[in-house]
Write a structure and sequence with these properties.
Radius of gyration of chain A: 23 Å
InterPro entries (chain B): MetI-like, MetI-like_sf
Oligomer: heterodimer
Strand order of the largest sheet of chain A: 1-2
Pfam families (chain B): BPD_transp_1
Number of strands of chain A: 6
CATH architecture of the largest domain in chain A: Orthogonal Bundle
GO biological process, one term (chain B): transmembrane transport
Distance between the termini of chain B: 28 Å
Membrane topology (chain B): Multi-pass membrane protein
Radius of gyration of chain B: 24 Å
Largest interface: A-B, 57 and 53 residues
CATH class of the largest domain in chain A: Mainly Alpha
Strand content of chain A: 5-15%
Subcellular location (chain B): Cell membrane; Membrane
Chain lengths: 295, 310
């Protein structure tokens, strides 16, 4: 009962946070006279009021793209499908690859491999995306062969391979580093040397003694992993011109009539839904890993 | 001092020196620009030469499409990049570190177990990019305020969003230290809270602070770069609306490095040096700091660490 109340209050808190947070661009504006910062509190509250008013008659689900009015409900379906598929693929494959390679990196003696990984891990996600695009352009310049499309230029001919690669490798790099770090810490523990003294095999120790003690860290870091996944989503949907949710929201946040509070709120709610789905999925994935590797 | 630390220090210091004193030796200033030119080749045909010019002997990094020297722009903008990132990192470490130290020392909580899932953990799931975007988007486009003032506002916002993570990292480390025996023994001989913090906790944490500081610089550079992708540049953005259907053009007011990357995103296929050179400078700067942090880590690790049994 208490737990249910807790979850309800958290849920309401998140909703309120989003409603207030989306006001910020309306509230915080430069004054037209001298450019100093001004807080227009009433502006924000009136946006909130009209959002609630519009919920009943459907006004809140209309938005402008340029000067054309669209219905949010009609447009969001295809965007959601695009974003959903990339996030699901990136999250599940990225995590699995990350976990396996993380274990490998913790025990391997190849130092250059580790430093290469560190190097990739420290580069911001957009640099990796830009470098991938550059690579394609250079290959195309040298050989005349366009290996992959560098961005979607029309809806009929979307870029697939490059977004897919970057949606997997960027979360995977984070996961590898994280797992490798905790794995190499777990391998210094006394129970590992005890297991070794009992004559257990190396592979058995790694997967049945060390890995179960790494999984809790992965679980605890899941929100951070999701943060990287979603932050990355904004970047690569924008750079590859993918018609996903974030591009829909943030390229249309400022339309002909200025800031669109309704669109941003609806968009963030959609992302929140996506977050919940992917989070549940990843928890299930880790649960599966635990069932396999914990005796 | 190990090799990687030395290399990182040399790279970052060289780039800082170039950004602050480069204008005295650079071939072109920020105000000079190359005009449209005619050249007559050996057949007698005249060729129209118009900027952007690719890298050449007179303009080592080439020019932008208005004929301004890219190297001069990088030198002018580097000051903003370097000062903004370092000061944001200092603020994050000082305030976040103080909060984390006090929270860790005074709180009653045990060191947190890994499988505990506090609701605050979920805040990690919100990308900082979106928070800063929300705050800055309304004030960043064609602002009246001066570039310095806008850079200051962005820096304050960037510092504030980073403080909680620094504080929680420092708190975790402090809780571990607080329960050590030397703290208990100095408590038992009557040392005050302030003495324990000053004489025991801070000396043990200073190495972590140093590494955290360098890592924060890398994170802040990444954040500025991500914002620049969405046309929020340090010091403000000038928007030039082109006739439809051309997209509007976004130009950085300060020529800050990430801003130069952001405004050249459309140069992926042609005039690539406009995108590639700022990206290279920015990446090398990040890698320099990364090398410093790696070097520091391995220097400190050699003193304390345990070794893998496998």
């Amino acid at each position: 009962m208490i737990k249910a109340a807790q979850y309800t209050s958290i849920f309401v808190g998140i909703l309120l946070f989003i409603l207030v947070f989306a006001m910020v661009p309306a509230v915080l504006q430069p004054s037209p006279m001298d450019g100093s910062l001004q807080f227009y509190w009433w502006e924000g509250l009136s946006r909130l009021g009209s959002y609630f008013d519009g919920l009943a008659n459907g006004q809140s689900f209309l938005y402008l793209a340029g000067k054309t009015e669209h219905s949010f409900m009609e447009q969001i379906g295809s965007s959601f499908a695009v974003t959903f598929s990339y996030v699901i693929i990136g999250a599940s494959i990225g995590m699995t690859i990350g976990m396996l390679l993380g274990v490998y990196f913790a025990v391997t003696r190849a130092r250059w491999l580790k430093s290469l990984l560190e190097l990739l891990g420290v580069l911001p996600d957009f640099v990796i995306v830009l470098l991938l695009q550059f690579l394609i352009v250079i290959i195309a310049d040298e050989t005349g062969l366009v290996v992959f499309q560098i961005a979607s230029f029309s809806t009929d001919d979307p870029a697939v391979a490059l977004p897919l690669i970057s949606s997997v490798i960027i979360p995977a790099i984070y996961m590898i580093r994280n797992v490798a770090l905790h794995m190499s810490q777990a391998l210094t523990e006394d129970y590992i040397s005890f297991a070794k003294a009992r004559g257990l095999g190396k592979r058995y120790i790694i997967f049945y003694h060390a890995l179960p003690n790494v999984l809790p860290f992965v679980k605890a870091d899941l929100h951070k992993f999701m943060g990287i996944l979603f932050g990355n989503l904004f970047i690569f949907e924008y750079l590859y011109h993918l018609n996903g949710v974030t591009l829909l929201v943030f390229s249309n946040a400022y339309a002909f009539e200025g800031y669109q509070y309704n669109l941003v709120v609806n968009g963030i709610f959609t992302l929140l839904l996506l977050y919940a789905i992917v989070f549940t999925l990843l928890r299930a994935l880790i649960f599966g890993w635990e069932k396999v590797f914990t005796r | 001092m190990n090799k990687i630390l030395t290399a990182g220090l040399i790279i970052t210091l060289l780039m800082m020196v170039a950004a602050f004193f480069g204008q005295f030796v650079a071939p072109h200033g920020l105000s000079e620009h190359v005009e449209v030119d005619y050249q007559i080749d050996e057949n007698g045909d005249s060729v129209l030469l118009a900027p952007p010019y690719p890298p050449s002997a007179s303009n080592p990094f080439g020019t932008d499409k208005y004929g301004y020297d890219l190297m001069a722009k990088l030198i002018a903008g580097g000051k903003y990049t370097i000062i903004a990132t370092i000061s944001v990192a200092v603020v994050r470490i000082v305030i976040g570190g103080a909060i984390g130290l006090l929270l860790g020392y005074l709180s009653k909580s045990k060191p947190s177990r890994a499988d505990r899932l506090p609701i605050w953990n979920a805040l990690n799931g919100i990308p900082t990019l979106i928070i800063v975007w929300m705050i800055m988007i309304g004030i960043s486009m064609n602002p009246e305020a001066s570039p310095f003032k806008l850079a200051l506002i962005l820096s304050v916002v960037a510092a504030l969003v980073g403080i909680p993570t620094v504080a929680s990292t420092v708190k975790e480390k402090t809780i571990v230290l607080r329960d050590k025996q030397f703290v208990l023994s100095s408590k038992s001989i009557g040392a005050s809270h302030w003495t324990i913090i000053r004489r025991h906790l801070i000396p043990h944490l200073q190495e972590s602070f140093l590494i955290l500081f360098v890592q924060e610089i890398v994170l802040i550079l990444g954040l500025f770069g991500q914002l620049a992708i969405f046309n929020i540049f340090v010091g403000g953005t000038l928007v030039y609306n082109n006739p439809w259907p051309e997209p509007p053009e976004y130009v950085s007011r300060t020529n800050e490095w990430s801003g130069l990357i952001g405004q050249a995103l459309s140069n992926l296929v042609n005039h690539q040096w406009l995108l590639f050179i700022p990206l290279l400078v920015y990446t090398v700067f990040i890698l320099g700091f990364h090398m410093i942090s790696l070097g520091l880590e391995s220097m400190f690790k050699r003193r304390f660490s345990k070794f893998s049994h496998i």
